[in-house]
Amino acid sequence: MLRLADVSVSYGRIAAVQELSLEVKEGELVGLVGHNGAGKSTTLWTIAGVLRPSSGDVTFAGRSIVGLSPDAILRLGISLVPENRRIFGRLTVGENLRIGTSARKDRKQAEADIEKMCERFPVLGSFLDRSGSKLSGGEQQQLAIARALLSRPKLLLLDEPTLGLAPLIVDQVFEILQELREEGVTMLLVEQNAARTIEVANRTYVMRSGGRIAFHGTAQELATMGDFEAAYIGMAP
Amino acid sequence: MSQGIQYAVDSIAFGSLFALMALALALLFGVMGLMNFAYGELIMAGAFTMYYTRGAGWGAMIGMTILVVTVLSLLMELIAFRPVRRASPVTLLVTSFAVSYGLQQLGWMTVGKGPQKGVEPYPFLTKQLDVSGVLVSRLTIITVIVTIVLLVGMTLLLKRTTLGIQLRASTEDFRMAQLVGVKANWVISAAFGITGLLASAVAILYVLRTGAVDPEIGRGPLLVAFVGGVIGGLGSLPGAALGGFVLGAIINALQAVLPTTLASHTQLFAFLAVIAILVFQPEGLVAVRSGFLTRIWRRLRRPVVAEEAAA
């Protein structure tokens, strides 16, 4: 479904991602892990259309999406849950959900989906008129995921959804991801929490410094790779 | 006492014009990081449209003014600002100055040539009504009513419509708004259209109040609205409107109360008051939400940070 072929992305003269190739097949949850500064978020921002690769290609459903605007890429079916949630704090929970349906033309179904999302995430349903900025971190994460799901994406990109959250909330987020995976939602999950990511993902790519892929494979395959921990500094044994 | 109330009512009317202008400036600033110094030239276009259509009747004059100013605002976005939308904030600023100066000079070369032009006061509007001992002109009452209607209308638009939600989201986090599917071109064009509509209302009420029509008619109000928006807090639409209103009202009140020898220096005293406000409340009367300075810093750093895809 999604393919990156030798993608390189630079910030001025600094190469953040170099010749990165990865693939996400339909129905998969693919993890992308690595330490801080490895280029994980840069990869997601490139797929989402915010950054433009200096070389290489990004294709989605067989079509190159390099150069398309973020809203055009969303309309093709790629939705991003960004790092730090980036909820619209001045909008209410209800408005945040509503704006998640901006790309849809089926208004009645979109309204029905908002109600279903409130049933799925009951805390959102009970805080519909509350300002987004007044929610806790875990509640905002639920809102960010719900907002992204309301665009009915074919591919969901998640950028460190557990960043800054309490352990109990981290568990809840991973439970949500597990449920989405079982429902067949295709996801590319960027996380620093490598152990949990490898556990829940079908396959995982490991990035190292310099924005390159060091390893990739299933959990079993990664366990047999000798230099895995060296490539991901700080990972718990 | 009644004279004091008269000054107060007049200041409210005058200040409300600047509330509309500051709101428009803040809307554009929030959506695309553009401080549109060419906004004064929209007032100019409205003033000249009124001058040339003043013989066609009220309806035609007002209708044509609204049409011309709104279309000009949309064309301004399409021709001047859309091509440089992804440029640095400095480029956007220079572009707005260039558009402003270019339109002003075009005005001087064409419609502004010849003797001083103006729109004669309408007796219907200048007639003063006695409201409980306070003399208030019809124009003052109409100004207050029109600005209240427009501000209420803007509030309803921003709060109750899909466009309004998209505009509010875009002013808070334009990039994230795009990522949830808000179309950049549509939102920005809508913002320019709305600001054009507000500019036409300001032009009509301002020209009816002052009478004079010249290519630089918009410069003074623009400065007041801009500074008022800053003291109110450009990151907040209500804040900017409040700041514009407060500064406009202060200037009008000072003009009424200062001695004749100092009346010509009204703006000096007004801007001294601005400095005082900013010393104690540097983020504006309505504190800007966190992230505003960070966003400005990121925008200023944009050319050396990342290459961004076409919007």
Task: Write up what this structure looks like.
- The complex is a heterodimer of chains A (237) and B (311).
- In chain A, 36% of the residues lie in helices and 26% in strands.
- Chain A is built from 10 helices and 10 strands.
- In chain A, the strands form 2 sheets. In chain A, strands 6-7-8-3-9-10 form a 6-stranded mixed sheet, sandwiched between helices.
- In chain A, helix 3 (93-99) packs parallel to helix 6.
- Chain A is globular.
- Chain A starts with a strand and ends in a 6-residue tail after the last helix.
- Chain B is mainly alpha-helical.
- In chain B, the strands form 2 sheets. Chain B has a two-stranded antiparallel sheet. A two-stranded antiparallel ribbon of chain B has the order 2-3.
- In chain B, helix 1 packs across helix 7 (162-172).
- Chain B is globular and about 55 Å long.
- Chain A binds chain B through residues 10-12, 48-52, 54, 66-71, 74-75, 79-80, 82, 86, 88-91, 95, 98-104, 133, 147-148, 151, and chain B through 162, 165-166, 168-169, 172-173, 175-184, 289, 304-311.
Shape of chain B: globular
Any low-confidence stretches of chain A, pLDDT <50, length ≥5?
Answer: 233-237
Number of strands of chain B: 4
| Mean pLDDT rating of chain B | 83
Please describe the biggest sheet of chain B, giving its number of strands, its sense, and whether it closes into a barrel.
2 strands, antiparallel
| Strands of chain A, total number | 10
- What class, by secondary structure content of chain B? mainly alpha
Alpha-carbon distance between the two ends of chain A:
33 Å
Shape of chain A: globular
From the structure provided, what is the oligomeric state, counting identical versus distinct chains? Answer: heterodimer
The SSE string of chain A, one letter per element, is: EEEHEEHEHHHHEHEHEEHH
- The level of helicity of chain B is over 70%
List the helices and strands of chain B in order: HHHHEHEEHHHHEHHHHH
Low-confidence stretches of chain B: 301-311
Strand order of the largest sheet of chain B: 1-4
Helix-strand makeup class of chain A:
alpha/beta
